[in-house]
Amino acid sequence: MTAFHNLHTHGFVRAAVVAPRVRVADPAFNVTQTLAMARDAAAQGASLVLFPELGLSAYAIDDLLQQSALLAAVEQAVARLLDESCDLAPVLFVGAPVRVGGRLFNAALAIHRGRLLAAWPKSYLPGYREFYEKRHFATGLGAVPPTLHIAGQEAPFGTDVLLRATDLPDLTIHVEICEDVWAPVPPSTAAALAGATVLLNLSASNVTVGKSAYRHALCQVHSARCVAAYLYSAAGNGESSTDLAWDGQAMIYENGTLLAEAPRFARDAAPILADIDLERLQQERLRMTSFGDAADFNPPSRPFRVIPFALAPDTESDLGLRRPLSRFPFVPDDDARLSELCYEAYNIQSYGLRQRLECTGIKRLVIGVSGGLDSTQALLVAAHAFDTLGLPRTNILAYTLPAFATTDRTKSNAWALMRALGVSAAEIDMTPACTQMLRDIGHPFAEGQPVHDITFENVQAGARTSLLFRLANQHDALVLGTGDLSELALGWATYGVGDHMSHYNVNASVPKTLIQHLIRWVAESAAFGTAAKPVLLDILATEISPELVPGDGKDGPAQKTEDFVGPYALQDFTLFHVTRFGFRPSKVAFLEWHAWRDAQAGAWPPNTPADKRMAYDLPVIAKWLRVFVRRFFATSQFKRSALPNGPKVSSGGSLSPRGDWRAPSDASAAAWLADLERIPTRGE
Prior knowledge:
Blueprint: E1 12-17, H1 27-43, E2 48-50, H2 68-84, E3 91-100, E4 103-112, E5 115-121, E6 147-150, E7 153-156, E8 161-165, E9 172-177, H3 179-182, H4 187-193, E10 198-202, H5 211-226, E11 229-233, E12 250-254, E13 257-261, E14 272-277, H6 278-287, H7 289-297, E15 305-309, H8 335-360, E16 365-368, H9 373-389, E17 396-400, H10 408-421, E18 424-427, H11 431-440, H12 454-475, E19 478-481, H13 485-490, E20 504-505, H14 512-525, H15 532-541, H16 561-565, H17 568-581, H18 585-596, H19 618-635, H20 637-640, H21 670-676
Parallel strand pairs: 1-2, 2-3, 8-15, 9-10, 10-11, 16-17, 16-19, 17-18, 19-20
Antiparallel strand pairs: 1-14, 3-4, 4-5, 6-7, 8-9, 11-12, 12-13
Helix pairs in contact: 1-2, 8-9, 9-10, 9-14, 10-15, 11-12, 14-15, 17-18, 17-19, 18-19
């Protein structure tokens, strides 16, 4: 096993959140429970463990907080925690009432391997409804003593403290307590702008009907606004029920995405764990120039104190990966979200086309229909756009353009689809025109030799597109492009007068894996009538092929696209993580391996056929990743630099030079190819 398989190698840190059982005002019992949960989380590879607010004393103890016996017992519990955590790898964040400078503070303590690293006081003390914290505690917003002395140790104390790991890049931690995140300006906002990537909230937060959803909203939006991870732990079993109840809600969010959540009202406590992608957070902040501007224009009232510490995580073992990881990042795994996404994608594509037609005043389209996925999707979008504009579908001039390698299946599907949609349909045999061009340039195929080289293929692609443009001239129409995002990423398009070019391309930012689900969604919804459904399903079942090289018969294509460029499922996964987050190839391979190594694990998008539920081992992943890197970074940027217009559809980005992706066409791919060498390829 190599370091490649270790999550820390790829910029992750494992965090745990837990709400142990407590006894009211019994620090000795509570620290025992805290240590047990800390050991449980440590055994599962956690580097950070978050506990609830005032967990060592219990939260709902009211005036008992001002009893010296109770406070002394808390200090004894802290001393035990320091002593017995010496052999524990994670940093423990525990809540306790502490005396500092003659005042009592509601505080969070960070303890690591027997050492008190830092402590934070609660800033905002609720004094409304059922809360009486201002009766007992001093606010952390005042003139707080800079140092906490407790259990024979001292550490920086204040809301202006950041913990920064010296041996795990991008791990910078800030802590706040309960009400702090409910305030209009949480302390963690300034901390995030100062560099904190992991924000922790020790909370008590009694439960009332509907409160859980509000907590989720707070944590989700705050983590997204701060481009950070946000860990939240609420008090649970054992807290006083004199007037309140508690649900032990625990959550881990990362930039607006829920990574893990504990079952509420659980009687038996157990940690929830998730692996936070620190590199992803930093990459997002690098891209969001407004994040840096906010830091510049909103300086903290006093500079943060950065406290370095060595986390010393395990960097060799395979600890697995604990976080939601989709095989298809462009395609949701559940019916409701997929249906919503398909609805939005269709309407985005349709809107773009409608706007282009309205602004030009043109009322006709020309489109080549091959019987394959991309032209099918573009034709469906065109039909929807024309319906919305009140234009007859007969104004869509659809042509099937068979040549040397067109199969009976794709041609018949093209005709069936055009008829089902009621567009103007025609067929023009491209064989004579292609043969003449091959003869004119002296190509061996024109003399009867079976030479099926790139020239042979591109003559067909170029002849088809040239014809479509001349038909558009003749009929005062626009040529509708059909090529998709995946093909653009891999350079799988004939440049210039080929499938690379059109007047407008509705598929330009739609990946192949999403197009398949868009077509299936239309088929199942019968949006274009029952006659379209069987042909759409047959198109989905047809092998993906450019059909440019003749085969031995008419039953299937001689070319299979995925034999050349790799499985689109893998390549779309790579495309998303390379363009959306800027990840290096070795990290993409790590993620891809966890997503694809076991076909039985994890969720699949709805209606994924059984024969498409594949598994890929690391050598196969590395093989096709090398193909992606070479094609994307080394050979095909010049095609993307000259793309026709088309709407951005997916948050995964587009490759338009006017949109998400700008790159020189003559850049070297050496850095990406070198990083590929970090991937072990002799097995897992």
